[in-house]
């Protein structure tokens, strides 16, 4: 890899981390049960991406999360039924799930960031999770 390619790869990697790092860390910490181990997993994901610059520009959020699962010891294939079900949720339900489960926020933080009462956050989360369970169960 040339110095120029390495520099471009580093810039792209920093952008990927800025966009997805917090969500990846929250997810990795949940999978491993440990924040420090989650940091190690995210670092390993980024090192893996940096070592394969040919795919760096094409990394999608789903692929990053699949790599986190793989490195953390979870299953490496995404659950397409679940991913499809998430896409069918109303935007306000997806936003709540994203804040709570991927960004690692609590109910109060989610309420403040979305500008809705905490009770609405709880209800939207409950409704969204119920719909996801129903969709995946069949």
Q: Which terms would index this structure?
A:
138 residues; mainly alpha; 8 helices; 81% helix; 0% strand; globular
Polypeptide structure, described:
About 80% of the residues lie in helices and about 0% in strands. The chain is mainly alpha-helical. The protein has helices spanning about 5-30, 35-50, 55, 60-70, 80-90, 90-100, 105-115, 120-135. The chain is globular. The model has no long low-confidence stretch (mean pLDDT about 85). It is built from 8 helices and no strands.
Residues in helix, %: over 70%
The largest pleated sheet is described as: none
What share of residues are in beta strands?
A: under 5%
Q: What is the number of beta strands? A: 0
Structural class: mainly alpha
Shape: globular
Helix and strand pattern: HHHHHHHH
| Alpha-carbon Rg, integer | 17 Å
**Uncertain residue ranges:** none
Any chance you could write out the topology, listing elements then pairs?
Blueprint: H1 3-32, H2 35-51, H3 53-56, H4 61-72, H5 80-88, H6 91-102, H7 107-114, H8 118-137
Question: In a nutshell, what does this entry contain?
Answer:
This protein is mainly alpha-helical and 138 residues long. It has helices spanning 3-32, 35-51, 53-56, 61-72, 80-88, 91-102, 107-114, 118-137.
